[in-house]
């Protein structure tokens, strides 16, 4: 059989349903083979970054590897920024690129370069198949490594002549792999012992809690010990219900303020994440002085990587949390159970006050125009059905989203990690393909949207009913905030204008851009108009863009 057939059979063996890409000449063997493999849907993007972003979010939404096909060196180069985001998001992905004929290697062919070296810094494994005999084992290993914890992208270069070679080595999947080890009894006892000794425990969770389906187990443990639950400022998923009283929200981005957010915590349990993604340096650590630090992870790579621990445990997150919770309940005294319930009641009271304060704050800004972001989000939240999925890249508006929407857990909310922008509207494509039955709204800042605006064409081409809401404030608002922080932290005495941070002269016209790519749209300035437009757009069953005029930095 030909190498190209082994590649396609490898995709089928690993359950691939969608192949994301932007083709070129060296991808001809793959593109020409698609007609014979009707079970694989090719999702055409007009930019390589869009293909990567869509595949990354697809993988996060369905748990299967996102597979992408790129075009030689420039195509891979265009995609590297998004691959970095997929790496930081821990998206299991197999990224491939066609490569020039290996017989041209010493003759500097057009578009030729060392693709393996280009991809290596932003993937878990980078390799080129140098013969058709290698395609099957390379693809088998690629899918395995992509899913090994912590999951992430791998890269495979496929020379055009190798795809045309004959081989007897057939495609085969790695097989069902049971990667989550049972929790060690001594480790469970150590973690439980520290939690039982805590007077004020706190729990810090990462996206792996959502991916492992461990949200309910995490909440049960938090309730058993009376702990607040925190997530990082930028997180891909909502691992636990955001309206649960024990959920405290997002932590800041520098160690001193992280420790301040933990308050008087004497024990901090970290579960399922890299901990921490910092923006600003501070010499202090992220934990309150004297606090015991515990960690539960699925991989040795994560455990104690950045912080010394008082107890660490490698295991599947769900069984580990269930085991710790069971032991805590078994060993806790009546006095401890009472204290834990008192702490839980404090969270209930705090959440009630927070809701009242938010209502007062919204009332105070309701008449301002352009719309403040919290008012805009309130209007959208009132318009969407309960089963709606929110994909967002609202940047400075992101902390307001869990205050406006109710997320039950994994699958209700998606956001990008890594800090690179443009992931939102590209990622929405992949989430919709993974969850076609659920209504979807994608929220994106205007600056972020411009990094992958071509995603609108793909949505129209594949008839993906996504409502894209662009938060149009005509500025890089996050940069203005960060410039203020920079000036304060480094004692810079300037009071200069925010140079090069306004998206004006000329203004961006998202409705016009959408129309040029086959997506209908409209501009809105009023909350009532926005809510009605969102409802109508969801009912239409077609991609639709709403350019919402929102307040900038004041």
Structure, explained:
This protein is of the alpha/beta class and 554 residues long. The protein has a six-stranded parallel beta sheet. A six-stranded parallel beta sheet has the order 9-8-7-10-11-12, with helices on one face. Strand 1, helix 2 and strand 2 form a beta-alpha-beta unit. It is globular.
Helix count, DSSP H or I runs of 4 or more residues: 21
Q: Give a count of the beta strands, DSSP E runs of length 2 or more.
A: 18
In whole angstroms, the N-to-C terminal distance is 65 Å
Global mean pLDDT: 95
Quick one: biggest sheet? 6 strands, parallel
Q: Would you summarize the structure shown here?
A:
The chain is an alpha/beta fold.
List its traits:
21 helices; 554 residues; 6-stranded parallel β-sheet; single chain; alpha/beta
Topology, pairings included?
Layout: H1 3-13, E1 18-21, H2 28-33, E2 41-44, H3 48-62, E3 66-71, H4 72-89, E4 93-99, H5 115-119, E5 126-128, H6 132-147, E6 153-159, H7 160-163, H8 185-197, E7 201-205, H9 208-211, H10 215-225, E8 228-231, E9 247-250, H11 255-262, E10 267-271, E11 292-297, E12 311-314, H12 317-331, H13 334-365, H14 373-383, E13 389-393, H15 401-404, E14 413-415, H16 423-434, E15 440-445, H17 446-449, H18 455-461, E16 466-472, H19 477-489, H20 510-516, E17 520-524, H21 527-540, E18 544-549
Parallel strand pairs: 1-2, 1-3, 3-4, 4-6, 5-6, 7-8, 7-10, 8-9, 10-11, 11-12, 13-14, 13-15, 15-16, 16-18, 17-18
Helix pairs in contact: 1-6, 3-4, 3-16, 8-12, 10-12, 14-21
